[in-house]
Every structure is written in structure tokens, then in C-alpha cells.
Amino acid sequence: MFCILFVLFLFIYHPVCGVFQKLYCSLSESCECDFKPNIKDLEWDLYKNVYGQHLAQDIVSEEVSKFLNNKSPDRPLVLSFHGSSGTGKTLVSSMLGNHLYGSAMSSPYIHQFFVRTKHPSLCLQEELKNWVQGNLTECARSVFIFDEMEKMPSGLVDVLEPFLGPSHVVFRTNYRKAIYIFISTTGEEVINKVTLENRQAGQDREEIKSADLQEAIAQTAYSNSTSGFFLSSIIPQKLITRFVPFLPLSRRHVERCVHSELCQRGSCGRSDVVEAVGGDMIYTPVQGQYFSTTGCKAVPAKINFFL
Ligand SMILES: *[C@@H]1O[C@H](CO)[C@@H](O)[C@H](O)[C@H]1NC(C)=O
Ligand SMILES: *[C@@H]1O[C@H](CO)[C@@H](O)[C@H](O)[C@H]1NC(C)=O
């Protein structure tokens, strides 16, 4: 017995023994692919390196730790990220990948899906279904990231419905251990409006509550024909665990992005560049100039210009 354990131990920890690991995984319930979640590191990264997004920080840490601490979740974790471009949606999705798997975002169990066609086809639906099902059969602890949902043809996402619900077990696979992340700009109008009203009322940004936005984002996703979830039963069935709003960034946040990027390039001390890039962004609305229209998106390019 000891000998077998020892041999298995070698198989699991020896990277060249991928084939044996696969064999072991198919025989064992306990082996979870490359899954090595570090929730503390994820939280630290979220709170230290994402600027101006208290809702995303709180919701993502809370939901991920709740989900991973549950040994047999009754449904997968489904998060939908919403907000204007440059507010940190992609950044947060990579942080998740980075702290869940041994090989970070290059893990073979993190899958990113981009669709750039507006023409839904049965073929595409079948492909998407097989892709999710096939990968879940290989590894129940898979992460699926659907970026730019607003470019996804309406109706396509519906093939995911059976995977997102509570009761699916196919083959030996437990579908309920997967994590799905949807990313889109849908709902940016309502998120930006709530943030603007908060600012104009002179309140703290942190006073904006997640509950203030959940229903509004769900409604927009359901009723806007370019959301990727247009008239999808995924919304009324409440298969999305939480909507994660990303708020528009003010100059102070943009400057933190600039500072952090400069530090990564070894030029931490260049406050002149921080100031110049911060001053070079476009801010809305005209009255007040509160929020950067492009968030932190153009920061690296502008640094190249001013450095
Ligand atoms: C799993 O996903 C990868 C891309 O992430 C894809 O290339 C592969 O075909 C998928 N596997 C199955 C069995 O569908
Ligand atoms: C749907 O969303 C797009 C992109 O966010 C927006 O431009 C458009 O005004 C929205 N349509 C409606 C009817 O709200």
C-alpha cells in the first residue's frame, strides 16, 4: 500500500509524468487537475492592484472563497463582469486564473472564448456545447472566460444553460465545480449613472452597494439586444451567481494605474509622467469632469509618449 501511494505521489508531482497523472486523475476523485487555489493571494492581489473597484473586490473575493470552501457546491460559480472599457474587468479575470492554478493563466484548464461573428449558427452552438462539455470531462475544475459578450450572437449563450444550473452530472464529471466568467460593457450606462449621482451628491464611492445594481444590470442584459444575454432564460432563471459592476474611474485612479505601470518599468519616481498622463485623459461629464472615458486603458501608450 505504501509503495502504491509512493508511486502515485511521484506521478502527481513529477511534471513529465503527465500521462500517468491523467490516468491517476481518471481513477481518482481527489485529483483536481492543476487546481491549486490560493484565496489569500487572490484577495491580496485584488485589494492591492485593482483601483477604484470596491464592489468587484468584495464580490469576487466573497464569492470565490465561498465557492471553493464548499467541497460539494450545488451549482457552478457564474460571475458576470460589467462596466466601461479600461475599468479592470479583464485584469480581474486574469487574477482569478493566476491564483487558482499552478501554472497561472497558461493553465490548460483556463479556457477563453471569443466570438466575433454576428451570425448565430447551429454549428457554432454545437461547437460551443462540445467545447464546454469536452473540457469539463477532462477537468471538472475548469474556468471558462467569455470575453466581449456584446459581440456574441443572441441565442448562442443559451446552449450553456444546462451547464450553469444546479443538477448536472454527466459521465463521471461534476459540472458543478466549474467557474464561468462573462465579460461585457452591457450595463455601463446604469453603472456610470449611479456612480455619477453618488459623486454629485458628494458621497463616498464606497457607499455604492452591490444590491443597488444587481437588478438593473440583469434587466439591461436581458432587454438589450447586444448584451449576449438578450431574452436568454439564463437571466430569469437566475443562473448567474452575481453581477459584478465595474465603476468608472476618476483621475486619482488613473494616476494610480500610471504610477503602478511606471514602477513595473523601474521608473517609480516620475511623478511628472503621472501628472502628464492623468491630465491627458478625457473626462466626463463636461460639467465636473469626473470620470475618465477610457479608464486605465490607454495608460501604457500614453506613458510611452510622456516618458
Ligand atoms: C478544450 O478547450 C481548448 C481551448 O481552450 C480546445 O482547444 C479543446 O478542443 C477543448 N477540448 C475539448 C475536448 O473540446
Ligand atoms: C444597448 O447597449 C448598447 C451598448 O451598451 C447601448 O449603446 C444602447 O443604447 C443600449 N440599448 C438600449 C435600448 O438600452
From TrEMBL:
The keyword Repeat does not apply. Residues 1-18 form the signal peptide. Residues 252-306 form the Torsin-1A C-terminal domain. GO terms for molecular function: ATP binding; ATP hydrolysis activity. It is found in: Endoplasmic reticulum lumen. Keywords: ATP-binding, Endoplasmic reticulum, Glycoprotein, Nucleotide-binding, Signal. GO terms for cellular component: endoplasmic reticulum lumen; nuclear envelope. It comes from the Eukaryota. Belongs to the ClpA/ClpB family. Torsin subfamily. This is Torsin family 2 member A. It comes from Anabas testudineus (Climbing perch).
